[in-house]
Amino acid sequence: MLSPERLALPDYEYLAQRHVLTYMEDAVCQLLENKEDISQYGIARFFTEYFNSVCQGTHILFREFSFIQATPHNRASFLRAFWRCFRTVGKNDLLTMREYHCLLQLLCPDFPLELTQKAARIVLMDDAMDCLMSFSDFLFAFQIQFYYSEFLESVAAIYQDLLSGKNPNTVIVPTSSSGQHRQRPTSGEASMLEGVEAPLFYQCLENLCDRHKYSCPPPALVKEVLSNVQRLTFYGFLVALSKHHGINQALGALPDKGDLMHDPALDEELERLLAQIPGLVNSVTAGPEASCLPARTPPRVGSPWRPLHHARKVDAESDGSTEETDESET
């Protein structure tokens, strides 16, 4: 059944809003790259399974970073896949930034290290980048940094202009060198640590949200975050966003923090798969560490259709991710 929102929009606006052409182009590219294999199943079945995987959010598994960040749905799907695959890590383990980056590369081999570093900085603030982080702290910081990355680049530029006393109403177009990673506060910059006035900061962000073409947090929730303080730093703002319950709900990719370690649907599927392996169930239930064993092998979310060239790509690059993990451990 079509939603009222769909009926209220012209066709071309709906297609653009849902990024349908992006998925059609990707589907056609995969069809052409794998036409010999797909000919055994039929083109109609291929398109059915491809768009089913898009709806289920499994289409982003083992894909290149440019595709993963191409649409808001892809970003939300990647966040959800990362949580579901590695949530068991968070039950007992604390990891470093590089270890979390290795986990991200298991799902996206060319995931950029810079994004992982920026997410870790939200958690660690002035601590060293090799400090340990809990899974929940990193995940919610990563969600904000990854999903709203372009918006945060613009916010960082606005923050810097406010610190330098520039007109806050000036339209700011950030460049690749004006991002938040370069402008991270240091202990020697007193003005950075003091922050900016929250009301003026919100005025600038409200204008930014009105004209920003990328995803941004709901302005009402941004106002709620800033209304509780008189002054704040840039990273203080990011921490507040990452911990805000309403922003997490509005994004819709992750459960509440209290439910982060629970995924009944996936747990049931894992139990079903484990039950099909002869001798495994008995050996698992016989020992006191029974509940921990599945957690040591993070599950991969299955995809109704995963083209063969992607599967080969993962196999070819698996050695690279292993080398990076070994390097982080040394």
Automatic annotation (TrEMBL):
Keyword Iron-sulfur included in the entry's annotation: no
Annotated keywords: Cytoplasm, Cytoskeleton, Microtubule, Phosphoprotein
InterPro entries (UniProt xref): CSTPP1
GO cellular component: centriolar satellite; microtubule
Transmembrane spans: none
Entry superkingdom: Eukaryota
Homology family: Belongs to the CSTPP1 family.
Reported function: Regulator of the tubulin polyglutamylase complex (TPGC) that controls cytoskeletal organization, nuclear shape, and cilium disassembly by balancing microtubule and actin assembly. Regulates the assembly and stability of the TPGC and thereby modulates polyglutamylation of the microtubule, which antagonizes MAP4 binding.
Record's subunit section: Interacts with PCM1. Interacts with TTLL1, TPGS1, TPGS2 and LRRC49; the interactions link CSTPP1 to the complex TPGC. Binds to alpha-tubulin.
Protein name (database record): Centriolar satellite-associated tubulin polyglutamylase complex regulator 1
Organism: Neophocaena asiaeorientalis asiaeorientalis
